[in-house]
Specification:
Elements: H1 3-7, H2 12-23, H3 29-41, H4 43-52, H5 69-82
The structure holds zinc ion (ZN).
Length: 84
């Protein structure tokens, strides 16, 4: 019964930390799943993130170099605002 909540990130802060790792290119398949799961259960994060990831798909490629510089900056600002 609690299995799903163990997979899904509990808080937006965890989500932000994983997203941060993603930006650093240090994210693995497990973290990718956690991010996607969180977006599924957290409308605020999903909404905000949707507006930023128009050209980037989490886990789509997992290569940090493919994230445009301005999008990276937007994501970082999003993290700063959303995670404090
Ligand atoms: Zn959230």
């Amino acid at each position: 019964m609690t299995e799903k909540s163990q997979v899904v990130m509990k808080t937006c802060r965890d989500f932000c930390e994983h997203l941060s790792d993603y930006l650093d290119g240090e994210i693995g398949p497990n973290e990718c799943v956690l991010i996607e799961e969180h977006l599924d259960i957290c409308p605020p994060c999903a909404l905000l993130f949707e507006s930023l990831k128009t050209t980037v798909q989490i886990c789509g490629r997992g290569v940090t170099d493919e994230i445009p510089a301005d999008l990276r900056e937007n994501l970082k600002q999003f993290l700063r605002r959303h995670c404090t």
